[in-house]
Amino acid sequence: DGVEVMNGGEFYPRVIDYAIEQGVFIASNTDIHGSSAEEYFVTTEGAVMRNMTFILAKDNSLESLKEALKARRTLAYSFGTIAGEESLLKAFFKASIATKVIYTNPSNGNRTVRLTNTSSIPYTFRIGGGNITTLKAFSSVQTTVAKDGKIVVKVENMWSGKDSHPEVELTF
Q1: DSSP label of 42
Q2: From CA 87, how far away is CA 96, in angstroms rounded?
Q3: Is the dihedral of CA 146, 151, 152, 153 positive or negative?
Q4: What is the pLDDT of residues 55-91, one digit of tens each?
Q5: How far is Cα 121 from Cα 86, in angstroms, rounded to an integer?
Q6: d(CA 60, CA 46)
Q7: DSSP 48-90
Q8: Among residues 78, 69, 29, which one has the least CA distance to residue 49?
Q9: How far apart are alpha carbons 62 and 70 in whole angstroms?
Q10: 75 contacts 84 by C-beta, under 8 angstroms
């Protein structure tokens, strides 16, 4: 009922498309035969480099876990990369990022907005067509937005298909 898109340090982006076409859940696995503490480590940025399958269940009961797997509410994570169905990725990213207007220019209405990553997962994204920005775990970046503008980010370390990354509109 599921398929792995990540195994250890390997990533198979085209399998995301296959999983969606076949209606099976996405998973990230390892072939560890010893202690995961020996295989994986915490980086200097505090990120744990280990494979995980996020099961987006309503609670931790067996029934809820089964329901989430059957409904394909899973995301695969490995080495800072997250893969899954686009709507789940967008919701996960939005839940991880807090936005706050910290200054509004009185002369033109442009706003300075702070984006804060409230999760332990670093994100790599582009705002509009701009340069790549890395937002480390539990850190913030600032950007300027036109008076009536919005922030749309293309999250480069999230994969919703072989060649696709979700674009997320952030509200503030």
Answers
A1: B
A2: 14
A3: positive
A4: 999 999 999 999 999 999 999 999 899 999 999 999 9
A5: 18
A6: 26
A7: B---EEEE--SSSSHHHHHHHHHTT-EEEEETTEEEE-HHHHH
A8: 78
A9: 12
A10: yes
User: What gap in Å lies between CA 168 and CA 94, rounded to an integer?
Assistant: 8
pLDDT tens-place string over residues 24-66: 999 999 877 777 666 666 666 555 567 899 999 999 999 999 9
Q: What is the CA radius of gyration of the chain?
A: 18
Three-class secondary structure of residue 6 per DSSP: strand
Backbone angles phi, psi at 80, to 5 degrees: 85, 5
Amino acid at 13: P
Helix (H, G, I), strand (E, B) or coil at 105: coil
The one-letter code for the residue type at 17 is: D
